[in-house]
Amino acid sequence: MKIRHRYLYIIGLLGSLTFAAIAAPSVSDDEHHDDVMTAVEKGLIKPYSALQHKVSQQLSARIIKVELNEDNGEWIYELKLIDNENNIIKVEYQAQSLQMLQIKGRHLENVIKAPK
């Protein structure tokens, strides 16, 4: 009987710790948000609306996912797009200048617009 109570106690404790870990707010998300806001104020990141405009000028595809990451002090927009043929394209833009750094995907000749 004592062994059964120990197992129930351990299972209850593990369940409580798991719930606490899931329910607790993520400190890293808050810190990342603060870092992004500071970078925007310093002019290190162009707004998302400018990025959307740049993508629409350069590519024939819709944005379906956006991530903003810092890599060695440089902010990078990482995008996932989908074209009219349902091909997935991955693109990276430097967040301050909105210069395209990298593009990957199939049938890119149908996605990249000719410069005007």
UniProtKB/TrEMBL annotation:
Residues 1-23 form the signal peptide. It comes from the Bacteria. The keyword Signal applies. Keywords: Signal. This is PepSY domain-containing protein.
